[in-house]
Design brief:
It is a single chain. With 389 residues, the protein is α/β, with parallel strands linked by helices. The protein folds into 2 domains: 66 residues, Alpha-Beta Plaits, CATH 3.30.70; 261 residues, Aldolase class I (TIM Barrel). Helices cover 35% and strands 20% of the residues. Strands 9, 10, 11, 12, 13, 14, 15, 16 and 17 form a 9-stranded parallel beta sheet that branches. Strands 4-5-3-6 form a 4-stranded antiparallel beta sheet, sandwiched between helices. The protein has a two-stranded antiparallel sheet with strand order 1-2. β7 and β8 form a beta hairpin. The longest helix has 17 residues. It is elongated, with a radius of gyration of 22 Å. The chain starts with 11 loop residues before the first strand and ends with a helix.
């Protein structure tokens, strides 16, 4: 099965390596905001779709009255005026919003711009082979921590697909604390993930660790994962940004919320808005669990950024029996999905067996996730969507 087989037949396609990727039919608004960000714009003026050139001229004239400059960025549906200048009068926003053709004026105060909801108030929905991440539905990504063998990954993929997963996770390159532990099968692991995708139709989420590996991993993956240890590897962030592919950005072990969003900014600044945030727990003074699952960040992300966010309760807790309650809590807090580790025999797993669900436990979790999603007015993304049918 080729990558094109897993996507919907609409839209344009671009090539990278041996893989084919589906580009959005319409350019994301971020594309038009990039020039304004590079000008360190403290305010933007969003024009209505019906605004005329005379309306734009009136906005520019009002800015000039205050000693400011207006930089117009023309979009497909509406135009945006970036306000250039250091001294913004406190009444400027109200003045501008009274002018004809102005939808709203927005102050930009956060260090991250393109990731901020002020810059892009509507939710970004990332399309992964026809699966919407960040839309009305919640996604479930499941699979082993590491790809170990053909039998292991295909067995797991079939099991999670049957239980209701919408994507398959699995590591071919593994960053490990010790250089003597299993560090993944490399390209052979990527080939096995591609085989599992052929067997099940599930898009593949897998980690890329270095800028030089991006092209290789991009040939096989549908989503490029940036692990917690690489959250501030800025060369890697820029390289995955240049692919245009969906990127799953995990929060660093000790990263603040702002640092996490600034890492997302590196990817978006390359013209790639297809970023999915992943809260995977942070390191605190608590030692009873592997990490502390920060569900505050999940709820806060829905207010501060337009990017979708999913939660990883496997790494967030480090204990398989805590995965279920934290997964349910994450959806209740507003997460757009979860990513969990599943292994057919966790006791013999080469990596993270203690935090991996069995296939049976995962199957029991899915209907509970559906119940919580329904309670907050959402649903689990349907299998028909995941299979591209």
């Amino acid at each position: 099965m080729t990558a094109l087989d897993l996507t919907r037949p609409t839209g344009q396609h671009t090539r990278r390596g041996d893989r084919t990727y589906r580009a959005s039919r319409h350019a994301h608004p971020i594309k038009y905001l990039l020039p304004l960000v590079k000008e360190s714009t403290p305010m933007i003026v969003v024009m209505r779709s019906t605004a005329t050139e005379e309306d734009l001229a009136a906005v520019i004239a009002r800015l000039e009255e205050h000693g400011l400059t207006g930089r117009v960025t023309y979009g497909e549906e509406r135009n945006i005026v970036g306000v250039i200048g250091a001294n913004i009068p406190p009444t400027l926003r109200e003045e501008l919003e009274l002018l004809n053709g102005v939808q709203e004026a927005v102050r930009i105060t956060r260090p991250y711009k393109l990731a901020a909801r002020e810059f892009h108030p509507h939710n970004t929905v990332v399309d992964v082979c026809g699966i919407p991440v960040g839309g009305p539905g919640c996604v479930i990504i499941a699979g082993p921590c590491a790809v170990e063998s053909e039998e292991q990954i295909v067995t797991t993929a079939r099991a999670v697909r049957a239980a209701g997963a919408t994507m398959l996770r699995g590591g071919a390159f593994k960053p490990r604390s010790s250089p003597y532990t299993f560090r993944g099968l490399g390209e052979q692991g990527l080939k096995l993930l591609a085989l599992a995708r052929e067997e099940t139709g599930l898009p593949v989420v897998t980690e890329v660790m270095t800028p030089t590996d991006v092209e290789l991993v991009a040939r096989y993956a549908d989503v490029l994962q940036i692990g917690a240890r690489n959250m501030q590897n800025y060369q890697l962030l820029e390289e995955v940004g240049r692919t245009g592919m969906p990127v799953l950005l995990k929060r660093g072990l000790s990263a603040t919320f702002e640092e996490w969003l600034l890492s997302a900014e590196y990817i978006i600044a390359q013209g790639n808005p297809n970023v999915i945030l992943c809260e995977r727990g942070i390191r605190t003074f608590e030692t009873a669990t592997r990490n502390t699952m920060d569900l505050n960040a999940v709820a806060l992300a829905k207010r501060r950024t337009h990017l979708p966010i999913i939660a990883d309760p496997s790494h967030g807790t480090g204990k398989w029996y805590l995965v279920q309650p934290l997964a349910l809590a994450a959806l209740a807090a507003g997460a757009d999905g979860i990513i969990v580790e599943v292994h057919p025999d966790p006791d013999r797993a080469t990596s993270d067996g203690g935090q991996s669900l069995t296939c049976e436990n995962f199957a029991a979790l899915v209907p509970q996730l559906a119940s919580v999603a329904g309670a907050v007015g959402r649903a689990i993304v349907a299998q028909e969507v995941a299979a591209g049918r």
